[in-house]
Amino acid sequence: MLPAHNDPEDAWRVLRAELRRRIGASTFDIWLGGLDVADWDGRIIVLGGPAEKELWVSRRYGRLLGQAAEDVLGPGTKLRFAGGEHAVEPSAGPPVAGEQGPELRTGFNPRYRFEQFIIGETNRLAHAGALAVAENPGQAYNPLFLYAPPGLGKTHLLHAIGNYVLQFGAGASVKYTTAEAFTNHFLGALSSKSIETFKQAYRTADVLLIDDVQFLAAKARTEEEFFHTFNALYENGRQLVLTCDRLPRALTTIEQRLRERFEAGLVADIKPPDHATRVAILRKRAALDQIEIADPTVLDLIADRVRDNIRLLEGALIRVVAFHSLTHRAIDVPLTTEVLDVMYPEAPSPGRASVPHGGGPISVETIQAAVAAQFGITVDQLTSSSRRATVNWARQVAMSLVRDLTDESLPSIGRAFGGRNHATVHNALRRVSDRLAGDTEAVEIVHQLRRRLAGDQDDRLS
């Protein structure tokens, strides 16, 4: 918990610093500088300012404010304006410049680009599909259907496609909306008798990006219109990209004809990132925000605690930085542990976890025995203080496999290998990663060990 968790001024100071990072100091000073904190009870932060400014800021920056409040002050935090009746709700992503009304956007978050998207084994297909679509709209995969739980990068890829097409698409028009906004826009068009204007807005896009299509469920008239919009775009060679929180076939409340169209192109999933990808995401975020990390092992620590949601992962880093700005302490392991223990306490280590891709439980001891056999040494040597090159490399490989194939934290891995500290383990992981990048023999050895461990698990389970 932030030390000033119940101090309104300190809470606003931390939130203000994060907002400056997100939108830039000049933009903040022009549009948000006149706001001040009216109250903060640890759960709801209330901002105040001139009534007309509150209204404008809530409409233009409300979602950004709401998301930043959650990221800095903790999940579940609500933000209200002193003169308003409703809390500002965070959204799946920050608002973007160049909006064309509330329903369709033609500008995109400049930070959501392909070069800022961290690629790992769990999102490689989705990234490749999105890039192919951006490079050849209507030609590569149409439609492209991305599915994943919230917070894993679907919206990032949509914005990356939008940014790419705007930059390299030779004038092609690209528009973004959500299924919910599409529904609201359609119902508004019905009531105002402006259906033709509505159709023109969507059916003239060269690339149409639609977020969260699961919200079309059980809306018969909207589904009908969406079906015709989909067909009009598809038949004219225009690109559709859709995101969802589940597979098309799992959208049981949506008409079958729509589900079939969703599956007509490329369907790609995004799974929670592995440890190495989580660390890379944190490193990229720190570089983008020009955050100086005194001890890089704090990134491993954050990645250990927050595993299933990239938004929460980055939010954890933001809270550590906020604590640092309040206390003027270095961003190191003690400070990071102190912050994370409140929001993401370390789960008791079971000593066993699951092998990826459906394997059974595996123990640290099993991995140690397999690695020792591979390198022709004993487990005692593996866990000893020996610095002999063969033993040291084997030990580093074993640590890397334990990190990838179990839920053990860095400190617990160190304890299992002769009482070494977390920094030694972090260094071992880095050395393995560096060597695998250029040593094909090392790659083959690690692959053999992975296959052997997976096979051992199958034997034990059969």
Description of the molecule:
- This protein is of the alpha/beta class and 462 residues long.
- It folds into four domains: 8-88, GMP Synthetase, Chain A, domain 3; 99-269, Rossmann fold; 275-343, Helicase, Ruva Protein, domain 3, CATH 1.10.8; 352-461, Chromosomal Replication Initiator Protein Dnaa, Chain: A (Orthogonal Bundle).
- The chain is 54% helix and 11% strand.
- It has 19 helices and 13 strands.
- A hairpin with a 3-residue loop joins strand 5 and strand 6.
Write the layout of secondary structure elements.
Layout: H1 8-23, H2 25-32, E1 36-40, E2 44-48, H3 51-73, E3 78-81, E4 87-88, E5 99-100, E6 104-105, H4 124-135, E7 144-147, H5 154-168, E8 174-178, H6 179-192, H7 195-203, E9 207-211, H8 220-235, E10 239-244, H9 256-262, E11 266-269, H10 275-288, H11 297-305, H12 310-327, H13 333-343, E12 352-354, E13 361-363, H14 364-375, H15 379-382, H16 389-405, H17 410-416, H18 422-436, H19 440-461
Parallel strand pairs: 2-3, 7-10, 7-11, 8-9, 9-10
Antiparallel strand pairs: 1-2, 3-4, 5-6, 12-13
Helix pairs in contact: 1-2, 1-3, 1-12, 3-12, 4-5, 6-7, 10-11, 10-12, 11-13, 12-13, 14-16, 14-19, 16-18, 17-18
